Amino acid sequence: MSDHPSDHHGADGTGDDDAARARATWERMLRPMLGDEGAREAVEALESAGLDPSQMAKAAGMSQDPAAMQAMMAQVQRLMTTPAEGGVNWTLAHDVARQTAHQGGDPSVTAADGARVTSALSVADLWLDAATDLAPAGGARSAWSRAQWVEATLETWKRLTGPVASSVSEALAEVLTSGEGLMGGPSGLGGLPDGALPGGMGDPATMLRSLGSSVFGLQVGQAAGTLAREVFGSSDTGLPLLETPGTALVPRNVADFAEGLEAEDGEVLAFLAVRESAHARLYARVPWLRAHVLGLVEEYARGITIDLERMEESVRSIDPSDPDALREALSGGVFAPSVTPEQDGALQRLETALALVEGWVEDVTARAVAPHLPHGVPLREMMRRRRAAGGPAEHVFSTLVGLRLRPKRLREAATLMATLVSEGGAEARESVWEHPDLLPTAEDLDQPTTFTARREQARAADAEMDAALADLLDGGSGDGGDTGADPKE
């Protein structure tokens, strides 16, 4: 008997030829991972489980072209052998993010563009010195390509999406390999006996966890790459994406945004540089803020649960050999986590914190550019509308991890910041960042213009309570020291 099924051809028609070619195709694809014997046994195991190699090849869109096959084999080998970190194939996420960022072109930053950006960021810090007491962030001032933006921010995306991805990957494997799920039962991988996948591929659940981590990595990579084509710098999402202090702008995206605006390109660049620098100052000079914001994301992620029944029902008709189907399922919210009341509270606090950050940045930017930029007001309003509309990448991240990147209460937060300045100057505005317990709440944003009065009333009430408690501990009646009794008695 020949060692390769491709040597066998049917004499009475093309059906046997197609099946033989399909078996040979799968074996060639698996040989780099499993060796000759392991590849043959793997194909036989799939056939014994009721899976037709020729139909699987058609479903996967496999080409018989040798070059295309070689590329596919390399891709599959990476897909199945790259270890997942925290439920995500980050190697795949990184590659997809860079490829997506490059779509439409991603020219390297020229020396002239770099000089313009770093000069604008330097001037921005000078303007901001007159608008806030917070010192400059320090660190590098940089001009990035879109690919460089991906490289600089991917570590933070790992932290934000990893916990959710792990839960989704485990749930996906459970649904696909058990019960009446997509691949469960006697005719699917879930019905294969232990050790049926030879050559070190492991059990079906392990293989499908790897698939799930790859699909999730693909989604995160696409979202990060799409963001790289939209953002102006490191601060557009409101999240602290940089691990260390610094400021950066993406000249290509700034230029695209400036097209068709009444303001000159230099004015648009200066405005965006001030926003970027203000955001960096806040996170650099309020030492607890970055940990607070990312901690709220992690608090939400720790409670992630997946509705397995809903997932199983949703993926029942998905072809497991078609990664696009799984990707569409993810982006369509099939695997969206169930939100508990505790998680909803964390999300609300996160939204409020992001709104306060954006409100502070907006107020400080407006005051900093007012003496210098004639179009500062319309640019501010345009940025508000842009944040309110959102973009495709924001919607993807919202679906993947329930992370809402747009603050709902931006106008209220900006009003609160402006009110604080009018009542007590910049010092009063900056005082809200003294401690996380002092941050305005969602209820405070409901009535931003009376925030100071209500906080003073609360402080007075607390002081009165403290005095009464101290008096009680000293042996008094607890009414502040006035007992109404004759001291001689």
From TrEMBL:
Residues 469-489 are annotated as: Disordered. The keyword tRNA-binding does not apply. Keywords: Hydrolase. InterPro entries: Zinicin_2, Zinicin_2_N. GO terms for molecular function: hydrolase activity. This is Hydrolase. The lineage of its organism: Bacteria, Bacillati, Actinomycetota, Actinomycetes, Micrococcales.
